[in-house]
UniProtKB/TrEMBL annotation:
Domain Response regulatory: 452-568
Protein name: histidine kinase
UniProt keywords, alphabetically: Kinase, Membrane, Phosphoprotein, Transferase, Transmembrane, Transmembrane helix
Organism of origin: Chitinophaga terrae
Entry-linked Gene3D superfamilies: 1.10.287.130, 3.40.50.2300, Histidine kinase-like ATPase, C-terminal domain
Highest taxon, organism lineage: Bacteria
GO molecular function, one term: phosphorelay sensor kinase activity
Domain Histidine kinase: 212-432
Length: 572
């Protein structure tokens, strides 16, 4: 599946699995290096001086450094880092005191500083550790003068040798940690670069996504606006009512369903982000569905002086099996673009037929056409044809082709064979289907008569919408325009069910549920939450709140009826 318009997921964080592995490798390498160095120098110093005070601590140092490897593996790489740093500091100070000024302990200060920046992430921790290490090194230097802790008696020859060994050891350790510091810095820089790139791609994808969504909503909104504007223009302003044709009202309702479909797709963005933009097939009556869809766009066409002609072959099975949401989006985008770019007072023709066991739908306009060299590029986002300078093609055609290929079909363009203009050809696998299972039982308008429901919503239009639907069901409606009114009004009116919007100022719907469940007189009343946000996280939040149900906006009569019916047994 092509995920070109899918939000890229962040696969690598700065402290992800790869970061943990990298830290473990650094800890292991430094532990082995430090253990080897301690063992070699311990044996060398013991052979030169014969002091067990040097030999045994050096062997202990070797064992402790090697023990960091299993410690890091069984706890965490960060624990190994801090232990390694503590051991280095401890033994540098110890041998600095024991071996005296010849150890030149100050040479190891850069090593400890680099280690501090490698091990600790927070600046407060880094500053505190650096100050502590500085204090220890100063203490060792002061100790040389006042002899608080006496060192070993060393020969002049050994001191001379020790000077050079200290310089070599400090240089080696400083270079080693500087190498790993530089390597870690490059790695972090690369990760930051990748993260910036991911964020840029995410930003671009979100821009495309918002444009796609607004593009899809604009077409059905145009239908609603065209029909309503037509009636308003013809209305007698001396009258308060307008008589509207049933067919026109059905077209408005159908367009609103289109908008709701786009919104549902938007609310499923979490699935798209996760790469789960699945094809969901269902059985439906294709010819009737397509006729109704085309009738809706006839009104939009008339506003532009365009006639939409629909020809549907009888060879197409009564019921087909495909993803109706994606097919609707393809047809809508093709019709919208055809009406937009065809000539005024011309005809847009949609034909549906069967060819080579494929369902084919062609949309033909009578515009200026598209030059051959531009035919493929029009499927790129926001490409404007040289012949169509008024407005860009936008995202309709890229969306349509993307969805067609998701359905194992394709979308192509060719010239109109009978006149100027072009023909878009959609071909999909044809799957005949049996009639679907009977839909959910119809609304019983007698079932809920006499119920009393309290609705809380800060938006007056939403309160009006609930009132229209609930009163049609014979329900007495009590309205609250804020969350803080719910408990007092519920105590006063004793409603059978309470419905609260999730997002309200001062007291949210979730807080309303909490107040209701903590009130002895009201906790038995079923409480439903309503929201325009239907992401899975929101629904999980609703379930955790103790609400008795959830309804998504826009609220339909059928959805509201089913939600209320589930709680009727509680009301009884």
């Amino acid at each position: 599946m092509n995920h070109s318009n899918v939000l890229p997921r962040q696969t690598n964080s700065l402290d992800g699995v790869n970061g943990q592995k990298r830290i473990s490798q650094i800890v292991n390498s430094l532990s082995v290096t430090a253990a080897s160095l301690a063992f070699i120098l311990g044996c060398l110093f013991y052979s030169l001086t014969g002091y067990e005070t040097i030999f045994y601590p050096a062997m202990l140092e070797t064992c402790l450094f090697l023990a960091v490897i299993p410690l890091s593996r069984h706890t965490s790489p960060e624990t190994g880092q801090k232990t390694l740093f503590a051991l280095h500091t401890l033994f540098i100070i110890f041998f600095g005191i024991v071996l005296g000024p010849a150890s030149q302990v100050y040479l190891f200060a850069p090593f400890l500083a680099f280690c501090t920046f490698l091990v600790f992430r927070e600046w407060k921790s880094r500053i505190a550790v650096l100050l502590a290490c500085t204090a220890l090194i100063v203490f060792v230097q002061v100790n040389y003068r006042i002899q608080l802790i006496p060192g070993l008696a060393l020969s002049a020859g050994f001191i001379n040798t020790l000077n050079w060994i200290a310089i070599a050891t400090a240089t080696f350790l400083n270079c080693s940690v500087l190498y790993y510091f530089a390597k870690e810095s490059r790695s972090r820089y690369q990760q930051l670069t990748e993260l910036v790139d991911q964020l840029y791609k995410t930003n671009q994808s979100m821009k495309v996504y918002v444009r796609e969504t607004t593009h899809e909503i604009r077409s059905p909104l145009n239908v609603v606006n065209s029909i309503l504007q037509n009636y308003l223009d013809k209305a007698d302003h001396s009258k308060r009512t307008i008589q509207i044709g049933k067919a026109h009202l059905e077209a408005v309702h159908f367009a609103c369903q289109d908008i709701q479909l786009v919104m549902n797709n938007a609310l499923g963005w979490s699935k798209i982000e996760a790469g789960k933009d699945e094809v969901i097939k269902s059985s439906f009556q294709f010819r009737e569905w397509l006729s109704q869809l085309c009738e809706t766009y006839e009104y939009l066409g008339k506003q532009r002086g365009v006639y939409v002609n629909t020809v549907i072959s009888e060879a197409i099975p009564d019921y087909i099996h495909t993803d109706i949401a994606k097919l609707r989006s393809i047809i809508v985008n093709l019709l919208s673009n055809a009406i937009k770019f065809t000539a005024h007072h011309s005809v847009v023709t949609l034909e549906a037929f069967v060819r080579n066991e494929q369902l084919c739908c062609t949309v033909t306009d009578q515009g200026k056409g598209i030059p051959d060299e531009e035919k493929e590029h029009i499927f790129d986002p926001y490409v404007s044809s040289a012949q169509q300078q008024n407005e860009p093609i936008g995202l309709g055609l890229p969306i349509a082709r993307y969805l067609a290929r998701q359905l194992n079909g394709d979308l192509k363009v060719t010239d109109n064979r009978h006149a100027s203009g072009c023909t878009f050809i959609l071909s999909l696998p044809l799957e005949a289907a049996a009639p679907p299972e009977p839909a959910e039982e119809s609304i019983d308008y007698e079932l809920m008569k006499g119920l009393k429901i309290l609705v809380a919503d800060d938006d007056s239009m939403n309160r009006l919408a609930f009132t229209i639907v609930l009163e049609r069901l014979g329900i007495q409606v009590i309205l609250a325009d804020s969350g803080d009114e719910v408990v007092p009004m519920a105590l006063q009116h004793k409603p059978d069910i309470i419905i609260a919007d999730m997002v309200m100022p001062e007291v949210s719907g979730l807080e309303v549920i909490s107040l209701l469940k903590n009130n002895k007189e009201l906790k038995h009343i079923p409480a439903l939450l309503v929201s325009g946000n239907c992401f899975s996280e929101v629904q999980e939040e609703v379930a955790a709140s103790g609400a008795d149900g959830f309804i998504s906006k826009p609220v339909t009569a059928a959805a509201l009826f089913q939600a209320l019916k589930k709680n009727l047994s509680v009301c009884a």
